[in-house]
């Protein structure tokens, strides 16, 4: 048992009585700095030994459209307890180990533009195992070779995809645009605040959406920050926490600004919690935005002379349960208008404790098997729906209301 | 308001700031503590505030009679005023439903007044004291009886009568258990007995007495304090010192680690395995029961450490409640290390009152067994708790019959000096046997019903398949605790954080803080002992 308080107090008094000369301020500051440094080192070692974090740097920066873009020409490492892979963004900002093709498309050349988030980028996967590369392989195997140009950016929703279509995708003249539908899209579209449904259809707000980019751009100038992104478990933990918190706060702010003060949860939280029966006014409003964005992308694709297919990214919280967000986010009406494919049914048939389709110790991206299966489904749908090569058809997309 | 949650941190920051500002005004400090304690208690369910306030006031006006003295009218009025205030706060927010409880409280006040005035008419001080103590004890036990045991006995009665074709379901009622009722009523009973025995003078200050009963760090799950230990601390100025803040904060941190990291992470394992005891393998059943042993230890001792840490920061010292219990070698040693405040309470106020070891050997065994049986029942209104108490009573008697404490222990202790290897080995065997018995006891304690006990025992002893998914998880959460406890035992430093070198302390604090950040489950659960 420790000394009693009274004793302790007397001891404290005694120490004061001896009038120990106080430490100089510089020494106190130095000791404090050392303690902080030691605590950081301790935290790093603690996490490495007890709870290794997924090291998932993004390397995104601001694009000229006022939304995020991959940093051209960077090569970086992603590490989790399950994988250790190198990622390369080519000089056009596409996740690809090869240089970008010439901008001018040869007459017989086929191109697919991939628009999506980190699943399409191929996070936690080597390039060989990435969705983009697997789609290319599958199409070649089916006799329709086509170069996949990966325009996906981590964190992208449909609003950002739409904002970058003209400047980033159109110059490459893709024959087909493969657009992902992910559960985070509803949230991302809302917080991006790039477009709003208006009386004349979807209207740009004229704002930019660069969450945390200014800070990360500044920090990326320092080698220690770049090193920490790829190597520090403590940094990764803090970054994920701060990123998650920032996203949440931003969504709440956007919702409040839109006059929904009473409802703080992001739309997909309602959706997940309530399943198909989620029909709150805000949920309906969010779905309307998602629908308008997707239809607008489809119209833009048509203007570019390209076809478009939506591709659902199912959610897989464990090996026994998979679900798809597309119907909740877009509704049957949109899914009936735009070519659409989903690996959900295939995932469900493969459901087994021995089959791992999602990473389980990182950020739950697809495993090499998950990428392969999803790519096979995508390639099958592309060929079955004859989306390649491009054919001229009248507009099939109704204007947004 | 759980200690490890944000609302408590805000509450404590506010209370502590005001408490610090009132350092030189003892009376105001005590008033603040009383108010804070009632707010803390009312946070759960303001309706039950009347129970602690009424129990306190009743004991306060009864105390002079328990001491054989006449009741000063001022004391009577103070008690009645406190009860009335408590009843108004409890029931006025929902007067539509609360008016009948308010009326019942007024009636109880009338009865109490009649009793104490009646006791005043008893001229023989000895008889008055005996009568007052009996009435006080019965009234307080009745309070626990109604709120804690009524459902249990009514349900058992219905079940027994149904065996003979009777239907007495009308005797049942759905009574909610107020948090901490077993703790504060036992604290009040202990105080009355102390006054009766002349071990403690009767209180003449309702503020001090109510503060002593309701002191918030130990109000809902102990330690069950004695007046001789805690009451006096309300009478003299308390010093908030850097040392007290430091060691209190360290104790709180260690307690929070035990609760949040160990107990809350082991709880899902325990719940899962006890929930499917009939189909689990031997290995899983073993994991389940060992996980529960560490869960309940982390939960309860964690609560106690947090309570003691909070109190120490405010200049109070609460009694020790746990002393490395799983290192016990015999049942009697276990009960000097586990929930010390309850076991010593049972010893002083129940075992001794039953005759202790003053009668024949057989009577001593009977008293031991009965004390443990009632101790088991104190934990909850369920036959599994009764079985747990009976089991501990049985092993206490068995060890006593074998005379282990008087014949084996001195020999083993002697070996520690003459032949340390043999001494350590013998101690290890004794500790292992006692731990195995403790695990068996925890099975009765944790099982939701007797059927689960049956499934568990059958499964444990019917196979040798020791494989289980959760062995790794169990080891992950328990090994650091076991290592620290070995160190505590080896160095005989219970407060190892405060007493270790600055460098070791820094590393331990960092380990605890990072563990709390990265291993806290998403949802923290209530303390197990809040249900008792």
Set out the fold topology:
The complex is a heterodimer of chains A (401) and B (532).
Chain A: H1 5-17, H2 25-50, E1 60-62, E2 68-70, E3 75-79, E4 84-88, E5 111-115, H3 118-121, H4 131-141, E6 147-150, H5 158-169, E7 176-181, H6 185-192, E8 195-198, E9 201-204, H7 213-219, H8 223-231, H9 233-257, H10 267-274, H11 281-303, E10 307-312, E11 315-318, E12 321-323, H12 326-337, E13 340-341, H13 344-350, H14 368-384
Parallel strand pairs in A: 5-6, 5-7, 7-10, 10-13
Antiparallel strand pairs in A: 1-2, 3-4, 8-9, 11-12
Chain B: H1 6-21, H2 26-42, H3 49-66, H4 73-91, H5 95-121, H6 125-163, H7 181-197, H8 206-214, H9 216-219, H10 227-230, H11 242-275, H12 282-313, H13 331-334, H14 340-351, H15 361-379, H16 383-401, H17 404-418, H18 420-446, H19 450-460, H20 471-491, H21 496-499, H22 502-519
Helix pairs in contact in B: 1-2, 2-8, 3-4, 3-5, 3-6, 3-7, 3-8, 4-5, 6-7, 11-12, 11-20, 11-22, 12-18, 14-15, 15-16, 16-18, 17-18
Give short descriptive properties of this protein:
heterodimer; A: 401 residues; alpha/beta; Rossmann fold; 14 helices; globular; disordered N terminus; disordered C terminus; B: 532 residues; mainly alpha; 3 domains
């Amino acid at each position: 048992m420790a000394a009693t308080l009274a004793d302790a107090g007397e001891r404290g008094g005694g120490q004061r009585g001896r009038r120990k000369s106080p430490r100089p301020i510089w020494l106190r500051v130095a000791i404090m700095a050392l303690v902080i440094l030691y605590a950081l080192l301790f935290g790093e070692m603690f996490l490495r030994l007890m709870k290794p974090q997924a090291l998932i740097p993004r390397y995104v920066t601001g694009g000229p459209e006022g939304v995020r873009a991959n940093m051209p020409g960077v090569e970086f490492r992603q590490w989790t307890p399950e994988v250790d892979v190198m990622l390369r963004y080519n000089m056009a900002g596409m996740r690809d180990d090869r240089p970008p093709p010439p901008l001018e498309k040869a007459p017989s050349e086929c191109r697919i533009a991939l628009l999506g988030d980190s699943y399409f980028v191929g996070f936690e996967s080597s390039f060989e195992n990435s969705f983009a590369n697997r789609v290319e392989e599958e199409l070649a195997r089916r006799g329709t070779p086509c170069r996949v140009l990966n325009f996906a950016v981590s964190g992208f929703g449909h609003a950002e995809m739409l904002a970058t279509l003209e400047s980033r995708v159109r110059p490459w003249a893709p024959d087909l645009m493969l657009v992902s539908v992910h559960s985070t899209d509803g949230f991302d579209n809302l917080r991006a605040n790039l477009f709003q449904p208006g009386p004349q259809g979807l209207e740009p707000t004229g704002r930019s959406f660069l969450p945390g980019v200014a800070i990360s751009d500044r920090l990326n100038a320092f080698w220690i920050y770049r090193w920490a992104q790829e190597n520090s478990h403590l940094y990764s933990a803090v970054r994920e926490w701060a990123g998650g918190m920032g996203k949440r706060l931003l969504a709440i702010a956007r919702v409040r600004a839109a006059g929904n003060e009473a409802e703080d949860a992001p739309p997909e939280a309602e959706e997940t919690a309530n399943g198909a029966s989620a029909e709150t006014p805000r949920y309906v409003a969010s779905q309307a935005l998602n629908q308008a964005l997707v239809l607008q992308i489809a119209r833009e694709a048509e203007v570019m002379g390209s076809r478009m297919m939506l591709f659902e990214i199912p959610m897989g919280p464990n090996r026994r349960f998979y679900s798809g967000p597309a119907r909740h986010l877009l509704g049957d009406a949109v899914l009936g208008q735009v070519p659409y494919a989903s690996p959900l049914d295939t995932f469900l048939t493969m459901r087994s404790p021995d089959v791992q389709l999602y990473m389980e110790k990182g950020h739950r991206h697809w495993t090499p098997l998950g990428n392969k299966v999803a790519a096979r489904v995508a390639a099958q749908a592309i060929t079955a729906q004859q989306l390649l090569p491009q054919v001229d058809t009248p507009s099939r997309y109704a204007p947004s209301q | 308001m759980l200690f490890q949650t944000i609302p408590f941190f805000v509450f404590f920051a506010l209370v502590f700031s005001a408490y610090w500002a009132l350092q030189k005004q003892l009376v105001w400090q005590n008033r603040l503590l009383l108010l804070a304690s009632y707010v803390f208690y009312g946070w759960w369910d303001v309706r039950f505030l009347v129970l602690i306030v009424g129990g306190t006031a009743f004991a306060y006006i009864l105390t002079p009679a328990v001491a054989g003295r006449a009741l000063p009218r001022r004391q009577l009025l103070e008690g009645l005023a406190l009860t009335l205030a408590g009843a108004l706060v409890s029931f006025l927010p929902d007067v539509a439903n609360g008016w009948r409880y308010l009326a019942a409280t007024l009636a109880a006040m009338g009865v109490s007044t009649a009793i104490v005035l009646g006791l005043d008419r008893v001229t023989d001080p000895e008889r008055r004291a005996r009568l007052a103590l009996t009435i006080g004890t019965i009234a307080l036990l009745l309070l626990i009886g109604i709120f804690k045991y009524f459902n249990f006995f009514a349900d058992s009665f219905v079940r027994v009568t149904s065996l003979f074709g009777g239907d007495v379901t009308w005797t049942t009622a759905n009574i909610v258990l107020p948090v901490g009722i077993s703790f504060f009523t036992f604290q009040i009973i202990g105080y009355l007995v102390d006054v009766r025995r002349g071990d403690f003078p009767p209180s003449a200050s309702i503020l001090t007495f109510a503060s002593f009963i309701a002191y918030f760090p130990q109000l809902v799950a102990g330690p069950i304090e004695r007046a001789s230990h805690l009451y006096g601390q309300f009478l003299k100025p308390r010093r908030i010192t850097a040392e007290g803040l430091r060691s209190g904060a360290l104790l709180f941190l260690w307690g929070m680690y035990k609760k949040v990291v160990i107990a809350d992470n082991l709880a899902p394992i325990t719940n899962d395995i006890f929930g499917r005891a009939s189909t689990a393998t031997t290995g899983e059943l073993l994991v389940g029961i060992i996980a529960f042993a560490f869960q309940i230890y982390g939960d309860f001792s964690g609560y106690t450490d947090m309570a003691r840490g909070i109190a120490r920061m405010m200049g109070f010292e609460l009694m020790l409640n746990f002393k490395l219990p799983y290192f016990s070698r015999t049942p009697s040693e276990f009960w000097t290390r586990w929930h010390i405040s309850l076991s010593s309470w049972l010893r002083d106020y129940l075992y001794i009152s039953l005759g202790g070891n003053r009668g024949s050997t057989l009577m001593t065994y009977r008293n031991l067994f009965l004390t443990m049986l009632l101790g088991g029942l104190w934990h909850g209104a369920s036959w599994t708790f009764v079985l747990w108490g009976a089991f501990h009573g049985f092993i206490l008697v068995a060890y006593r019959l074998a005379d282990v404490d008087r014949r084996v222990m001195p020999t083993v202790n002697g070996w520690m000096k003459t032949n340390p290897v043999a001494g350590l080995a013998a101690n290890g065997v004794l500790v292992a046997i006692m731990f195995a018995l403790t695990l068996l006891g925890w099975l009765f304690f944790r099982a939701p019903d007797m059927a689960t006990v049956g499934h568990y025992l059958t499964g444990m002893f019917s196979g040798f398949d020791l494989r289980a998914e959760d062995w790794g998880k169990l080891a992950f959460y328990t090994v650091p605790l076991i290592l620290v406890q070995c160190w505590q035992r080896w160095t005989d430093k219970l407060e190892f954080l405060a007493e270790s070198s600055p460098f070791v302390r820094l590393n331990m604090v960092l380990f605890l803080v990072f563990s709390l950040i990265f291993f806290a489950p998403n949802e923290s659960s209530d303390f197990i002992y809040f249900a008792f």
